[in-house]
Each structure stands twice: as structure tokens, then as C-alpha cells.
Design goal:
- 36% of the residues lie in helices and 19% in strands.
- Helix 2 runs antiparallel to helix 3.
- It has one domain.
- The chain has helices spanning 2-17, 22-67, 81-95, 100-103, and strands at 79-80, 104-113, 121-129, 162-171, 185-193, 213-214.
- Keywords: Membrane, Transmembrane, Transmembrane helix.
- The chain crosses the membrane at residues 21-42.
- This is Tight adherence protein TadE.
Length: 224
């Protein structure tokens, strides 16, 4: 009986001393942790990149809105609804797969001096585009403003000029899991002073709204 059990005991001793499968067992323990770290890192990275792109979109919109206009250097430039709609369409193309106007909302505001209140400012006109529901905290009052924007970083208009104020609200699309992203709603703002002399009060015959944006036949305004 002892001789018959000898091979079994020998096999058990070899099995107890074997270390060939240790790395596989250890890997099985570490794999979930590695996956969690890798996927959460990918989610946070994607969120940061998306937020940076939204921030750059806001900045480019403000910059382009400050440049648009028709006219020569010898006269005040005018802007019309086509200019603004082209501006918004370009932002949507720049956003690409972010699907800006389905998952977000863009608001462009013209901050100008308030003639009825010396030293104060007003939002003369606004144009918006996007399906997302977003209530701007900066335009509840549109006249007699000390500035527009978050406290401590409010923007104002230059004398006889305007400043373009842009808000972009966007709902983030998670790459892996919603719970791993810092948040879903992001809002980025930017402003630029209008470079050239802009006609802020065109003739009423071509500007029925009286807000400084020329109407164009057949062109629907992107009103808010």
C-alpha cells in the first residue's frame, strides 16, 4: 500500500512546490483594478478634452463675432442676420462629433453702453441656437448693468463700442460610464471687444428690431 501511494505523495510534493501558475493567479486578482484605473482615467481624460474643446469654441465664437461686419475702414461696419447665422453654423461644424446644437446651446450677446443709465451697460441683442434647455444667469436683467458675467470677472463695453459675450452650455456624453465623469453639464464663457467701428444703431427701415442687426429677406434670425 505504501509503495502504491508513493507516486501520489511525490506528485503532491511537486504540486506544492510548483510556482508556474502564480503569475496567472496574481494577474487575475490585479486585472479588475487595472481595468478600473484605466477606464476611469480614459473617462476623465475624455471629459477634460471635451471641456477644453467647448472652451475653445466659446473663445472662437466671441473672436469671430467681434470681427464680422460689412463696410470699409472709412465707415462703420454693419452686421446682419446672415453674418450671425453663418457664425453659428461654423461653430457647429467646428464642434464636429460633439453634436453641439443637439446636446448644447449657444448664446451670443452684444454688451453695449446703456444710454439711459450713465456709466452702466446693457445687452442690446442676443442670438441663440441649440436644443438644450439653458437659462443664462447673466441676462435676467438686460439694462442698467454694472457688467455681464460672473462676479469679479464681469465684462463691459468700450466707449462707443461693443463687447461680444458668448456662453456655450453643453451636456457631456460619457465615454465609458456616467458615474466616472466629473459632471455632465458644462458651461464655458468668453468675450471679445469688437475690433472695428460697428454701426450699433442702423436705420429703422432696415432694422425693424431696432437692435443693431440688419434684417435680410428670407433669413430667419436665431432669436432666443
Amino acid at each position: 500500500m505504501t509503495r502504491a501511494l508513493r507516486p501520489v505523495r511525490h506528485f503532491l510534493r511537486r504540486l506544492a512546490a510548483a510556482r508556474d501558475g502564480v503569475i496567472i493567479i496574481e494577474y487575475a486578482f490585479y486585472l479588475p483594478i487595472l481595468l478600473l484605473l484605466g477606464l476611469s482615467g480614459a473617462e476623465i481624460t475624455n471629459y477634460i478634452i471635451t471641456r477644453m474643446r467647448i472652451s475653445q469654441l466659446a473663445l472662437h465664437l466671441a473672436d469671430n463675432a467681434a470681427r464680422i461686419g460689412t463696410g470699409t475702414q472709412l465707415q462703420q461696419k454693419t452686421i446682419n442676420e446672415v453674418d450671425i447665422n453663418d457664425l453659428l453654423t461654423g461653430a457647429g461644424l467646428q464642434a464636429g462629433e460633439l453634436d453641439l446644437f443637439t446636446r448644447g446651446r449657444v448664446i451670443i450677446s452684444s454688451v453695449e453702453n446703456d444710454p439711459a443709465n450713465a456709466g452702466k451697460f446693457r445687452i442690446r441683442w442676443q442670438r441663440c441656437r441649440g436644443s438644450k434647455s439653458y437659462d443664462s444667469p447673466y441676462d435676467n436683467t438686460k439694462t442698467n448693468l454694472a457688467g455681464v458675467g460672473p462676479s469679479g470677472r464681469q465684462v463691459i463695453a468700450p466707449t462707443d463700442g461693443a463687447t461680444m459675450w458668448v456662453e456655450v452650455s453643453y451636456t457631456y456624453r460619457p465615454l465609458v460610464k456616467e458615474a466616472w465623469s466629473p459632471s455632465l453639464d458644462m458651461v464655458e464663457t468668453a468675450s471679445m471687444m469688437v475690433r472695428d467701428r460697428r454701426a450699433l444703431t442702423p436705420a429703422a427701415t432696415v432694422d425693424a428690431n431696432g437692435d443693431g442687426v440688419l434684417e435680410v429677406a428670407g433669413e430667419a434670425a436665431s432669436t432666443c
